[in-house]
Amino acid sequence: MSSPLLADLADIVGAEHVLTDPDVTQSFGTDWTRAWSSTPLAVIRPASTAEVAAVLRLCHANGTPVVTQGGNTGLVGGGVPHGDRTSVVVSMTRLNSVAAVDRATQTVEVGAGVTLSQLQAHASSAGFRYAVDLAARDSATVGGMVATNAGGLRVVGLGDTRAQVMGVEAVLADGTIIRRLEPLAKDNGGYNLSQLMTGSEGTLGVITAARLRLVRQPAEPEVVTLIGLPDVESAVDLVASARQRGDLTAAEMIRAEGMAVVRAVCGLTQPLANEHPVYLLLETATLPDLPNDVDAAVDPRMWEYRDRQAEAVATLGIPFKLDVCLPITAIPEFLKEMDQLPDTQGREVHVYAHLGDGNLHINLVDIDEPTSERLDEQVLTLVAQFGGSIAAEHGVGVHKTKWLHLSRSSAEIATMKAIKNTLDPTGILNPGVLLP
Ligand code: 2HG
Ligand code: ZN
After folding, report:
1. Percent of the chain at pLDDT above 70?
2. Which CATH code, of 3.30.750.210, 3.30.70.2190, 3.40.640.10, 3.40.50.300, is assigned to 223-385?
3. Given ligand 1 and candidates 266, 323, 363, which is best to mutate, with the most ligand atoms within 8 Å of its CB?
4. Cα–Cα distance, 98 to 114 (Å, whole number)
5. Which of 84, 209, 257, 420 is least buried, going by the fewest C-beta atoms within 10 A?
6. pLDDT tens readout for residues 140-189
């Protein structure tokens, strides 16, 4: 090992788990979008909570920045270093233990490195379901999903990651371990530190394990319906009536340009009899109520048109991305105004959405740079004017720290900074992420 720090890290995790070859570490330094990329000082692969604690104690003593990484599926630059050879990436994939499902409490304890697919398979083998689902399921890990409070496809019916977290184990910046993994439905002994860690994007501690709630498997597979519609207003109306019936688990939207791209890139056939400006996918327990003359298809394979939007758009170039949330009824007007902004006018804007949650994914590909403060400012200011949130389900990352004030008051940001300074006084955990 070329430096005393790396040699000490190797003593903790084993030399074969300290990666320094740039050809190997580059992928850990580049996020999924390819918009953010730096070479890590090293990638450290601990195998236990005790090893994570020892790594953090050492980095804390040395003042070395630590970026925690799971499946590296983030889209806001929150899981990769910023600045070459300044930070170590702590890759959590070896913390992949899975305990037996606790049937009496309908919960399970899993390590941070367990992937969403593994968790889903484990839950379903015990007759349960893990409520959160998202397209990156084969790579996204529990630690990353808790750290970002991942949302995904079924929030409208089953809630986000926060709603599934009963407790977490985490290591603080100085190596202190805090552990709340007991299956306790009621636990009011003070502040809920597990929920403080949830959504903290690696800035307050390193999540090493979680106890997660499970939900019942549906008696029958859900009904998946893709519906062609003339406009976003009609989609919002259909979501409202589907919600009223009380059996809606997902309500997703694709626009015509997204349908065209996913079909071309993924070789998919036209799903409905005709082409439409807007497509709504509803997942419900029983057939949804639809207008008589509507063009629709009932088939679980309809998910593919929505699931593969991000992958399809990414083949067109490195996209400029924004992930925002709006009051759902404001979305038609918001989209009209967004398409008229100085920097979006006349451009193809790809919007796909977890419409039931009011969560829009805005992607532009015909741009010079995947990061554009002008676009950020124009779109996010409009989001704030409509009473929305600038960070829906992907987090703030490094991308949106500058715009946090549009969604949070200065008193809230000051409180967040006070918490950060208390738990990570030297600022080694994910510097530059979340807080301005
Ligand atoms: C999705 O819903 C993901 O498909 C990715 O959250 C969003 O590509 C995006 O902007
Ligand atoms: Zn999404």
Report:
1. 100
2. 3.30.70.2190
3. 323
4. 7
5. 84
6. 999 999 999 999 999 999 999 999 999 999 999 999 999 999 999 999 99
Ligand 1 in reach of 148 Cβ (< 6 A) = no
Domain parsing of the chain, residue ranges: 4-91, 107-216, 223-385
**H-type alpha helices, 246-284:** 256-266
Nearest ligand to the CA of 254 is 1
Please, what are the averages of pLDDT over each run of 10 residues along the chain (436 residues)? 90 98 97 94 98 98 98 97 96 98 98 98 98 97 98 97 98 98 96 98 98 96 98 98 95 97 98 98 96 96 98 94 98 97 94 98 89 95 98 97 98 98 98 96
Ligand 1 and 309: CB distance under 6 A:
yes
Distance 370 CA to ligand 1 centre (A): 15
What CATH class has 107-216? alpha beta
Among 160, 136, 152, which residue's Cα sits nearest to residue 212? 160
Confidence (pTM): 0.97
User: Which amino acid is present at 366?
Assistant: D
- Is the shortest distance between the CB of 25 and ligand 1 below 6 Å? no
Q: pLDDT tens for residues 291-319?
A: 999 999 999 999 999 999 999 999 999 99
Number of neighbours of residue 142 by Cβ within 10 angstroms: 34
Instruction: Tokens for 166, please give them.
Output: 């009963």
Residue whose pair of structure tokens reads 């959405």 in the numeric block = 353
Longest dimension (CA), the chain: 72
Beta strand pairing call for 88-91 and 66-69: parallel
May I ask the CATH architecture of the domain 4-91? 2-Layer Sandwich (3.30)
- Mean per-residue pLDDT of the chain: 97
